[in-house]
Write a structure and sequence with these properties.
- 2 copies of one chain form a homodimer.
- Chain A is built from 13 helices and 7 strands.
- Chain A has 340 residues and is of the alpha/beta class.
- In chain A, helix 3 crosses helix 6, helix 4 runs antiparallel to helix 5 and helix 10 crosses helix 11.
- The relative contact order of chain A is 0.14.
- The N terminus of chain A is likely disordered.
- At the A-B interface, helix 1, helix 9, strand 3, strand 4 and helix 10 of A face helix 1, helix 9, strand 3, strand 4 and helix 10 of B.
């Protein structure tokens, strides 16, 4: 009968204690925090200034633009925005390697024009075929595998494959300034998400270590899977079916499905991110829209309007017209990769 | 040139300070925390004991069953597990109301057998038709709406509709013991997710307030949407297409897509959760599997093997055979709803 009284008092005591101690922490640690330089790989300039200003703007309590932490949703494209994407999307390289490995089990592919074009590196034929037959073929290569086996094949590939220009594992090619930006946003109460045309399976094994982004905050392209019991063991089996393409107009749909809130901060680098940026820009309240412009042929790659991979054309015009933040890689970043 | 030295020192100072203060908090607050009763709406007994034991087991550092917080993923069905589902899934009631409201704009429905069965409450005809034509009709009712307008219609309905037995808003019918359990898990470093046959749109407007579960941690059934510019404004428009049914064998698929990690803790209440429980039980390491058994006709509803809604039959046999935790609502919960 009297149990509820001590319980309530204890709860109150606990809360008061926590509040008091939190206040102590703030008092004791604030001067130290203020001295730590934010975003050290970003040069002083327009892009860094815009980021820091926006974050201060939406995180200062009691000001008109203040946004609650629960609504501080930040979304990032992956290929070309958080890590490199040249000379070919890294996942595409992986899929081609898979295709080669699976070819002996598929003699019928010899007659498949998509396979022949890929096997002979016939760029003209590849371009003429378009995306669809290539995708269908690539999906077939992994069809019937369990998700666990597929995951293993990705981890093995990532551990052994090397980038042709840098001769390093692909996961070394994440942009240091963007890693800093992700951490900076989280330190200011943001939730950070990837929203990528790449598939969820390909990003999740390394995104937490590389970016601090947990698997459930990785939104991407989805291949069909089916639940089955194999020898009494529940497994998910991959189907030769692209269920959701998280690219271009698919990105706002992916955000709606997987996040369910309008982000206030978005970063991309190509026309495949344009609709995402438009979607995030829509609605009222402060918004940050950013594009990484690849201008550094020496430290990384230089490409934009005419590129076969990561083409940036319409989104760049729109960014310039609307005053979105365009990062000039060469001038805005004093380091690109952590190994440089 | 010397900038890096003060920056590093400041960072070290900040870290040491945070560690020191965190230790202080622990020292100061632990006695108070220990006195707070956990799960007050749960009677002492097997179910509560099993939960508390499991949580202690996986959260005690330095013991063999310890699991890192990042892998403490807990998934919950919604209908019948976190809130009531009788006499009819609440979302189904909403959809029927939507259908009635849309009927004047769809004179062609008069000839539709599914519409006629629903409009005349012809249970026999409804059962004979099966799910598919009913679902197709319900999808048509909201097709063409923007996601924002659809969200508004859900919020309006939730604010005005009343449950036939309790004469209260449907969102009052969340189970207090499960709210406590969700909080308890999060206090022990778990990430909590809903994995429901209900649609994401129907749960997200109220799940954070009711359960402390943010929109991006609500996994559910997905209706197709398409990105469009309407008068230059980006919107998502609903399509008459069920894209993903997050029920039965769909639940493990939903977990794989949206969470990307094997949960270690799962709660359901019906055969629609069976595959999810099997999926979570698979693999190595400690696992908690729970079922809510509706045994309380007075405070809630009593139903299981023969129920039209929330049928619990095969999963109950499996739970008994495998020693999963079955919550006997009547005996394990001293309160069901917070208003009781």
């Amino acid at each position: 009968m009297t149990l509820s009284v001590p319980v309530r008092s204890a709860r109150l005591a606990q809360r008061s204690c926590a509040v008091f101690m939190a206040a102590l922490i703030l008092l004791a640690c604030v001067p130290a925090i203020a001295q730590v330089e934010s975003l050290p790989s970003w040069n002083e300039g327009g892009a860094k200034q815009a980021i820091v200003k926006f974050v201060a703007d939406v995180t200062t309590p009691g000001t008109p633009n203040f946004i609650e932490p629960s609504a501080r949703i930040a979304v990032f494209d992956n290929d070309g925005t958080l890590w490199a994407e040249q000379p070919l999307y890294f996942q595409f390289v992986f899929m081609l390697d898979q295709l080669k490995a699976a070819a002996p089990q598929h003699p019928e592919w010899k007659k498949n024009p998509a396979f022949r074009a890929l096997a002979t590196h016939d760029q003209k034929a590849i371009a003429a075929l378009g995306e669809k037959p290539l995708l269908q073929l690539l999906l077939q290569a992994n069809s019937g595998m369990t998700t666990a086996a597929y995951d293993e094949s990705i981890r093995t590939w990532l551990a052994t494959a090397r980038h042709p220009k840098f001769n390093r594992p692909y996961t070394d090619l994440v942009y240091l300034p963007m890693q800093e930006l992700l951490r900076y946003l989280r330190e200011h109460g943001f939730k950070t998400f990837i929203v990528s045309g790449g598939s969820i399976e390909f990003m999740r094994p390394w995104a937490e270590k590389a970016y601090g982004i947990a698997p459930e905050q990785v939104v991407g392209t989805v291949t069909g899977t089916r639940f089955e019991l194999q020898n009494g063991q529940p497994v998910l089996v991959r189907l030769p079916k692209l269920e959701f393409l998280d690219d271009g107009p698919g990105k706002p749909v992916g955000i709606y499905r997987a996040i369910g809130q309008q982000p206030i901060f978005a970063f991309g680098n190509s026309d495949g991110d344009w609709q995402m940026l438009q979607w995030v820009a829509a609605g009222s309240g402060p918004r940050f829209l950013g594009l990484v412009h690849h201008t550094d042929a020496e430290r990384e790659f230089a490409y934009d309007r005419k590129s076969r991979v990561g083409k940036l054309d319409q989104a760049l015009d729109d960014a310039n017209a609307k005053g979105w933040t365009v990062v000039d890689m060469k001038n805005d970043w004093n380091r690109v990769f952590s190994f440089q």
